[in-house]
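Go through this pair.

…
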Amino acid sequence: MALDSATTAFLAAAAEAAGSDAKPMWHMEPLEARAASAGMDAMFGTGPEMHRTEDHMLTGIDGGQFEVRVHVPVAEPQGVFVYLHGGGWVISNIDSFDTLGRQLAEKSGCAVVLVNYRKAPESQYPIAVEDSWTALRWADENMEQLAGKRVPLFVGGDSAGGNLSAVVALRARDNKGPELAKQILIYPVTDADFTRGSYLEEENQTLLTTEFMEWFWNHYAPNTADRAHHEASPLRAESLEGVAPALVITAAHDVLRDEGEAYAQRLKESGVRTEQLRWPGQMHGFFSMVNVLPAAAEAMDFVVQSVRAELKKEAAK
C-alpha cells in the first residue's frame, strides 16, 4: 500500500517550499528544530469555540512548573480526556495541538486537558513521564471542577505522547488509580529498538525518519541504559495485565508501526480489551495534521467513536 494522494501532495509541496538545500531537522539543534516545527502551525487553522478554556500551572516532582490547558466544550462534559501531544519529547507544545484539542473536545463531548510537559534536552527522561503523571492525577483530583461531577477519565496521545500515555496507564494500574476508562495510543513509541522491520523500510522514511527518531532518543534519554526501563520503553514492561482497555492506531508507512502493533499484541495476550487498527496509506504524524490531511479527520472520528462507546458502557454500569 502506497501513501495516499493527499499525503504525497503534501510531502511534495513541503519539499518544494523548503528548497533543495534544506537542512534535515535531525541535523538541527533543538531550538532550531522547534522553530522549524512551529512554522507549520498556521496550516492547522483554528478550532471550534469552547464553552470555556482554562490555563493552569502545575508543579512537577522536582519543583519545576508546566502548563495545562483545559478545553471544556459544553456546560456538562461527559468525560475528561488528558491528551499528551507528540513531538519526540523534544519539539512541539500545546499551542501546536490547540486545534486538535478543540476538535477532540467538541466531537467527543469531553473536557480535554492538553499537557505542556517539559521537553528534552533541558528536561530529560523521566521528567516528561513525571509531568504527565502529575497532570493525570490533577485531572482526576479536579474532575468536579472540570466537568461538574465524576465522569470517565481517558488518557491518550500521539507518538511520544502515545508513549507517555502508555506509561502513565501502567502507573495508574500499579498505583490502583486513577481509574482509566481507556487509553488511546496513536502510533506510540513503545521501544527503543531501531532494528525492527518498519525502521528499515525505505517507504516509511517520511516526516519521521530513522535518523530523526535516533535524534529524539539521544536528547530524551541519552543514557542508553534508561531506555530499557519500561517507563521509557513500555513494551519492555514485565506485565501488561490489568491496564486500562486500549485503542492502538498505527500508520502503514511509519518507522514506529511495528513497535506500536507489538504493544497492541502484548496487550491482547495479557487479557486487556484492545482494538488495534493500521491506518492505510498514511505516514507518521497524520493524526495531528488537522484541517490538512483527510485521514486526520477520519481518524479523529474513529477515536471519538471509541470514546463515545466507552462512555455508553460506563453510563450503563
Summary: The chain has a mean pLDDT of 97. The longest strand covers residues 274-283.
